[in-house]
């Protein structure tokens, strides 16, 4: 069987959900059918080394600064598609989806795009571009959740048949740890008796960290002084540290930066809290659930689809520190109920959100789109 050469296109490869999905796709695509090449329009990013460790070539164009014009970027990408004899392009996130489809059209190859977030603040020019590119330059759109699919239909007016929902999925091994809870906490300088909250995600407005910090003084007044582990980096880091100092909770908050030992971090936590203001389907939440952690998350994106009506986790409205504090306090007061819900959530994620099943569906999209263009 002839192998298809697929170019996976990103602007960059920082540590993030979409980028971790790429690692799953690269590691699990059928090697007898697909050859992969990865391209970043801008810089390589933190996960580039992991891509290359899989034996996948990575090309860094370095053309996403203000000096590089759109035409020059499309021309360079088109040349890469020709030089690498690419049969199909799969791009992720807005700018790669936009420029990638234009280059694929020039080269006469099919394009698949992935959309990973709901449209909280849709911009009219992006909606127009997405609609226009969907008419003749898009083989398929992969939506990471049903909520994302609804936003694509609502705001971009694309044809329903173009969209396939393939739920964001995880590598289950990344949630595992050989450490005991005591050992995992000791590595972080935590006490066995500490009540430990954790959250993982870019330190950006979207993730709603400020509401979780606001919940800490409320909890303190109610007699609970948890330790909070904030895992990730981003533009809000300085303001969040300032906020913690102003609230008088700096001693309770650990800014851990980007970490690769998620399984060990999960083992140190009592409760995973995701206070996002908008999401697609959070891989960090799925990973925490796979580790057996009870989850408190806001009612955004694909969260209710995964957690149900508090059957597999606790769902709260976004933007409320008081509700976060109330739920955290209730979880602390009822550890057996939390442990039961954590176990139910773990089984659900392991049954429905394995990356092996996800990649098989992606392969199905590739085959359908390639045959339609052939």
Question: How are the elements arranged and paired?
Answer:
Elements: E1 4-10, H1 17-28, E2 34-40, H2 48-53, E3 58-60, H3 70-83, E4 88-92, H4 94-107, E5 111-115, H5 124-136, E6 140-143, H6 146-156, E7 163-165, H7 181-187, E8 196-200, H8 209-221, E9 227-231, H9 237-247, E10 253-257, H10 262-268, E11 271-274, H11 283-290, E12 295-298, H12 303-307, E13 314-316, H13 321-333, H14 335-352, H15 355-373
Parallel strand pairs: 1-2, 1-4, 2-3, 4-5, 5-6, 6-7, 8-9, 8-11, 9-10, 11-12, 12-13
- CATH fold call of the largest domain: Rossmann fold
Spatial shape: elongated
Mean pLDDT over all positions: 94
The CATH class of the largest domain, by name, is Alpha Beta
For this structure, what is the CATH homologous superfamily of the largest domain? Answer: Glycogen Phosphorylase B
Order of helices and strands: EHEHEHEHEHEHEHEHEHEHEHEHEHHH
CATH architecture identity of the largest domain: 3-Layer(aba) Sandwich
Report the β-strand fraction as a percent range.
15-25%
Beta-strand segment tally: 13
> What is the CA–CA distance across the termini?
15 Å
Instruction: Write down the Rg.
Output: 21 Å
**How many structural domains does the protein architecture include?**
2
Number of helices: 15
Please give a structural write-up:
With 374 residues, this protein is of the alpha/beta class. The protein has 2 domains: 4-169 and 354-373, Rossmann fold, CATH 3.40.50.2000; 172-352, Rossmann fold. Helices cover 46% and strands 16% of the residues. The protein contains 15 helices and 13 strands. The chain has helices at 17-28, 48-53, 70-83, 94-107, 124-136, 146-156, 181-187, 209-221, 237-247, 262-268, 283-290, 303-307, 321-333, 335-352, 355-373; strands at 4-10, 34-40, 58-60, 88-92, 111-115, 140-143, 163-165, 196-200, 227-231, 253-257, 271-274, 295-298, 314-316. It has a 7-stranded parallel beta sheet with strand order 3-2-1-4-5-6-7, with helices on both faces. Strand 9 (227-231), helix 9 (237-247) and strand 10 (253-257) form a beta-alpha-beta unit. The chain is elongated. The chain starts with a strand and ends with a helix.
């Amino acid at each position: 069987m002839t192998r298809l050469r697929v170019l996976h296109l990103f602007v960059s490869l920082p540590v993030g959900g979409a980028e971790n999905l790429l690692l799953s796709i690269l590691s699990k695509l059928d090697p007898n059918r697909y050859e992969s090449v990865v391209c970043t329009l801008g810089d390589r990013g933190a996960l580039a080394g992991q891509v290359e460790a899989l034996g996948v070539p990575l090309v860094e164009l370095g053309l996403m600064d203000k000096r590089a014009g759109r035409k020059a970027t499309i021309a360079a990408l088109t040349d890469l598609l020709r030089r690498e004899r690419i049969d199909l392009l799969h791009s992720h996130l807005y700018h790669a989806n936009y420029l990638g489809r234009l280059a694929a059209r020039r080269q006469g190859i099919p394009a698949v795009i992935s959309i990973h977030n709901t449209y909280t603040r849709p911009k009219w020019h992006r909606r127009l571009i997405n609609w226009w590119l969907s008419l003749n330059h898009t083989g398929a759109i992969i939506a990471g959740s049903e909520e994302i699919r609804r936003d694509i239909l609502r705001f971009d007016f694309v044809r329903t048949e173009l969209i396939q929902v393939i739920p964001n999925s995880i590598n289950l091994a990344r949630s595992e740890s050989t450490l005991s809870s005591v050992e995992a906490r000791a590595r972080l300088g935590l006490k066995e008796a500490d009540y430990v909250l954790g959250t993982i995600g870019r330190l950006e407005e979207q993730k709603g960290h400020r509401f979780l910090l606001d919940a800490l003084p409320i909890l303190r007044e109610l007699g609970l002084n948890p330790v909070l582990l904030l895992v990730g980096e981003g533009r809000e880091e300085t303001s969040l540290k300032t906020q913690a100092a102003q609230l008088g909770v700096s001693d309770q908050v650990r800014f851990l930066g980007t970490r690769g030992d998620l399984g060990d971090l999960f083992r140190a936590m009592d409760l995973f809290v995701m206070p996002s203001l908008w999401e697609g389907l959070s891989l960090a939440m799925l990973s925490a659930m796979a580790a057996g952690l009870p989850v408190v998350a806001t009612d955004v994106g694909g969260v209710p689809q995964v957690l149900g009506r508090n059957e597999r986790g606790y769902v709260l409205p976004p933007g409320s520190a008081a509700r976060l504090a109330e739920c955290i306090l209730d979880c602390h007061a009822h550890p057996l109920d939390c442990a039961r819900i954590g176990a139910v959530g773990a089984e659900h994620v392991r049954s429905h959100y394995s990356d092996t099943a996800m990649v098989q569906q992606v392969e199905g999209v590739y085959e359908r789109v390639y045959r339609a263009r052939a």
